[in-house]
TrEMBL record:
Record organism: Pseudonocardia lutea
Name of protein: AAA family ATPase
SUPFAM superfamilies: C-terminal effector domain of the bipartite response regulators, P-loop containing nucleoside triphosphate hydrolases
Keyword Repressor: no
InterPro entries in the cross-refs: AAA_16 (IPR041664), P-loop_NTPase (IPR027417), Sig_transdc_resp-reg_C-effctor (IPR016032), Tscrpt_reg_LuxR_C (IPR000792), WH-like_DNA-bd_sf (IPR036388)
Gene3D superfamilies per UniProt: P-loop containing nucleotide triphosphate hydrolases, Winged helix-like DNA-binding domain superfamily/Winged helix DNA-binding domain
Length: 963
């Protein structure tokens, strides 16, 4: 018994079984993503290590990457580690499956053998390129066994890595690949929210690790000591102090052993001295004590390594300290024996981030600053121009050394690189950190400019204006911009953000002040933004002309970002008139962005294209991809737009709960980032979803918040009257109010002709026709808008035509049209029921069609949804046709409801009478009245009716209970 045994996996039988099955399924070609979540020290890394071991035993390859806690996130960092691991493992980069993406991956890991120069481009590749390339690398790794990707500490993952992980989670189920992710469960972290969303939509399985039980702690203690006979005092201490966390079990035992309190002798462990005296209360104390056993030279080298980050680059450290690499390894071995450092597939690293923190915190401030300056000087001498991968670590060292301007310069470099990738969140974090360090230096203005550009690209209208106005004032004061080029760039950025905030006058004011710069580039940007202003002001013809000019001008400039933006605006102009043409433009914009690696532009193109496809085909897959991509790259305006569009799609799919979740997110993003009309649009869409459920109180509450923000915008106000007030009135069976609200919506719509039309205004011609009013030319006018190509909107217009056909005596054509309409509206039960109800009333009056069947279907649908007002309207119509119809629950007396409940239990009259203290004859009379009221023929049907009513929480059964 010479030392402690660690790395135990105790108390994880079920979790290990799930992981093993996942590995076996991956080997059979059925991949999976598994999230292993738990608090720090609970044993997540141990499980990932077991998977790696199993993978090795099966002849597979496990690629490992880790998130790192830094002040400034570095895009794709864990994935770069995984790719480096693949390279060291002898990945077949020339494999035909991987080769098309090798140049893309080599932009992240330049050491990859691309066989030529890395393709030139303005930025790093997009998330989708990286994700697909990594998936193909994992696929090739699986040819000798399962391919495994292990990503640890993903609660610190950068937004770009999160986006790639979402892609993998959606695609590995059909691949021989297992992805296992370790993360803390802290939902205040964006990365954890992303992981939990994967679990919620079943793209990933969750393994939630809990603390060890007392028995498991004892088992682990025995494993670590290699002895079942644990001294009772040690057992008690570990139970009291470890809190069931495997990490603390090991740390406590390691501390005791290194302090000489727990010592091996005669084949057993013995306690020497006061067990509680000197036992570390925190990991920092444990680290400090273990470091004390190191030689002065080894301890100093370990501290120097800590100054250079958690990952220990032995070659770099040797270069900086001017020693041999063998000396570095010699110093790290004792630290590894003490549990401070671990060796893995990516080299040496501190065992935990907090281990490194504890080392640095243990140094007195002046000593830490002095040593940081010495290491900084050596690093600068060895690497005058640090690599992109080293820039962040070097910046952190510079801060510790007190070289703030140098740190700011490095962070500016990090920020610019992230901005070129479209990694807007990472860019913003780096630039803000740099600005705080560069205050009062010449570097401040370049940093402010880059931050303004980043905020504009992200649609961050919440913070850009004060910074931008200050930057303009300082540029004016310095007189360093004689041709106005820099000021022009700032005005363009502020105009772009004003557009995001739907502040059209402010956007125009900034555009009027744009001068300088290359002619085509400037004119393309100005025309693009002026087109957006024109769309907002309902000047669609002007917008279309401006957007077309912007596309032409941007084509003459080798700037993919500019060209993509112009295409996006042109597509928005075409959307109101030609959905197919708009879809082609958005698809082209997506391709341009994808090829250039512009993640934020690609996200917007996917969102706009997805919006068109939702109208045309009712799908939402592209919107989901756009939402995730926008969230991962830090483009909140696009993310909010996609969430709002998903909320609208949910209305058409009649999924109010899902839709309300999307609109709530859109509202939150809109408020947080000051996204103008997006907030009232989200509130109105949410109100429409409440109206779909007939929840007037919730609808009114949402509209009360929306009205002060809507500012009279036509699209929102039309939607408010048509999708909210009219729809809710229909749910309540109030046709007169619905007609008045639809009329108000139409009157608002005519003079403005906005680019986006709330589709439910298409109900207006139908309601007018049913009520015998003149439908006017509005139905024909609606068909001039391209949005009518949506199948459900077309169905509403066709329903109005059918009513007129029936009134004209063309019964056969009218009936055929309505049956086709009902087929088209099958995916939205609410609209299906509304049209069936309205048309049936007209058909009954004019003597055509199948009004009883249509009313019966509508009644069942309304009752299933709990829309009593509309259901009562259907009952009234059926009674006018001489039909017996079931009554609503509120038409039963309290005693009848009691009898009905007992009938549903199958009780005979005698037993019902005993329970209710009634005679059998009285019960029989109640049953007879219930049969009459419900329209049921016998006791069995009555019982079925009662059960359905109970399942509907008081909603009466539909016509299937009719005889």
């Amino acid at each position: 018994m010479t030392g402690l045994l660690s790395q135990a996996v105790i108390g994880r039988h079920d979790e290990l079984a799930v992981l093993r099955r996942g590995l076996e399924s991956a080997a059979d070609g059925r991949g999976e993503t598994i999230v292993v979540a738990g608090e720090p020290g609970v044993g997540k890394t141990r499980l990932l290590r077991e998977v790696r071991r199993w993978c090795s035993l099966r002849g597979g390859t496990a690629l490992i990457g880790r998130g790192v806690q830094t002040t400034t996130p570095v895009a794709f960092r864990p994935l770069v580690e995984a790719l480096l691991a693949a390279d060291r493992a002898g990945a077949r980069w020339d494999d035909p499956d991987v080769a098309p993406f090798l140049g893309v991956l080599a932009q992240l890991v330049p050491s990859l053998p691309v066989g030529g120069a890395i393709p030139a481009g303005p930025s790093m590749p997009s998330l989708l390129h990286v994700a697909e390339g990594l998936l193909r690398v994992l696929r090739t790794c699986s040819r000798g066994g399962p391919g495994v990707l292990l990503l640890d500490d993903m609660h610190w993952a950068d937004p770009e890595t999160r986006g790639v992980l979402e892609y993998l989670a959606d695609h590995v189920p059909e691949e021989p690949v297992l992805v296992v992710v370790g993360s803390r469960p802290d939902r205040s972290l964006d990365a954890v929210v992303t992981l939990m969303s994967l679990v919620d939509r079943r793209s990933a399985r969750l393994l939630q690790l809990s603390r060890l039980t007392a028995d498991q702690v004892l088992e682990m203690t025995r494993h670590c000591l290699g002895d079942s006979a644990v001294p009772p005092a040690v057992q008690q201490l570990v139970q009291e102090r470890a809190d069931g966390l495997p990490f603390f079990v090991e740390e406590l035992l390691a501390g005791l052993a290194n302090d000489g309190v727990l010592v091996p002798a005669d084949g057993a462990w013995h306690v020497r001295g006061d067990l509680r005296h000197g036992v570390p209360d925190t990991v920092a104390e444990s680290v400090r004590r273990r470091c004390a056993s190191l030689s002065q030279r080894d301890r100093q080298l370990l501290l120097d390594a800590a100054l250079l980050g958690r990952q220990i680059d032995t070659a770099l450290l040797a270069e900086v300290l001017d020693v041999e690499v063998t000396e570095i390894h010699g110093a790290l071995r004792p630290a590894a024996d003490l549990g401070l450092v671990e060796f893995g597939p990516v080299g040496a690293r501190f065992r935990h981030a907090l281990t490194r923190d504890a080392l640095l915190a243990g140094m007195p401030g002046p000593e830490r600053g002095l040593r940081a300056r010495q290491v900084w000087a050596s690093l600068r001498a060895a690497r005058p121009t640090p690599s992109d991968e080293l820039a962040e670590v070097t910046a952190e060292l510079a801060v510790t050394a007190g070289h703030f301007q140098a740190a700011a310069e490095l962070l500016l470099r990090v920020g610019r690189g992230a901005l070129q990738q479209g990694a807007l969140s990472s860019a913003e974090a780096a630039l803000r950190r740099a600005l705080a360090l560069a205050e009062g230096t010449p570097l401040e203005l370049p940093l402010m400019r880059e931050l303004v550009m980043t905020l504009a690209a992200a649609g961050r209208a919440d913070e850009i204006f004060p910074i931008g106005e200050e930057l303009l004032a300082r540029l004016d004061g310095q007189g360093s911009d004689p041709d106005g080029t820099e000021r022009g760039e700032v005005h363009l950025a502020l105009a772009r953000s004003a557009v995001a905030a739907t502040e059209w006058a402010l956007a125009t004011a900034h555009l009027d002040r744009v001068v300088g710069g290359e002619a085509h580039a400037v004119s393309a940007q100005v025309d693009t933004l002026r087109a957006l202003v024109a769309i907002g002001e309902y000047r669609l013809d002007d917008a279309t002309a401006l957007a077309a000019a912007a596309v032409e001008a941007s084509s003459a400039v080798e700037d993919a970002d500019l060209h993509c933006e112009a295409l996006l605006v042109h597509g928005r102009c075409l959307r109101a008139r030609d959905l197919e043409a708009a879809g082609r433009i958005f698809e082209r914009a997506k391709d341009v962005a994808h090829e250039a690696g512009l993640a934020h532009r690609e996200a917007r193109a996917l969102a706009e294209w997805g919006f068109v496809e939702a109208y045309r085909r009712g799908g939402e897959a592209q919107l989901e991809v756009a939402r995730r991509l926008a969230a991962s790259c830090g483009a909140p305006e696009t993310e909010a737009f996609a969430e709002l569009a998903l909320g609208a799609v949910a209305w058409w799919r009649e999924a109010p709960e899902t839709g309300l979740a999307h609109t709530a997110t859109a509202e939150r993003l809109g408020r947080r980032y000051r996204l103008g009309q997006l907030v009232p649009a989200a509130l109105v869409t949410g109100a429409a979803l409440h109206a779909l459920r007939g929840d007037r109180a919730a609808m009114d509450a949402a509209l009360a918040k929306a009205l002060p923000l809507a500012g009279g915008q036509t699209t929102e106000m039309v939607a408010l009257h048509a999708h909210c007030l009219a729809a809710c009135a229909l749910a309540e069976g109030d046709l007169a109010t619905a007609a008045a609200e639809l009329t108000a919506a139409v009157e608002m719509l005519h003079p403005a002709r906005p680019a986006v039309i709330p589709p439910l205004v298409a109900l207006d011609p139908l309601v007018r026709s049913v009520r015998g009013a003149d439908a006017g030319e509005f139905g024909a006018d609606l068909r001039t808008y391209n949005f009518h190509r949506d199948g459900q909107v077309t169905a509403l217009l066709d329903a109005a035509d059918a009513v007129l056909l029936g009134r004209a005596g063309e019964a056969e054509a009218a009936t055929a049209t309505i049956e086709a309409v009902r087929q088209k509206l099958g995916s939205n039960g609410f609209l299906h029921a509304v049209v069936s109800w309205l048309v049936a009333s007209a058909a009954a009056e004019d003597g055509w069609g199948r009004p009883v069947v249509w009313l019966t279907d509508a009644l069942e649908s309304f009752e299933t949804r709990g829309l009593r007002g509309a259901a009562d309207a259907c009952r009234t119509a059926l009674r006018h046709l001489g039909r017996r119809v079931p009554r609503g629950a509120d038409e039963f007396s309290p005693r009848e409801q009691e009898v009905l409940a007992l009938v549903s239990e199958g009780l005979p009259n005698r037993e019902i009478g005993q329970r209710l203290f009634l005679s059998s004859r009285t019960v029989e009379k109640h049953v007879e009245r219930l049969l009459a009221k419900t329209g049921t023929a016998n006791r069995a049907q009555l019982a079925t009716y009662a059960l359905r009513q109970a399942r509907g929480a008081g909603i009466a059964a539909g016509p299937s209970s009719l005889p």
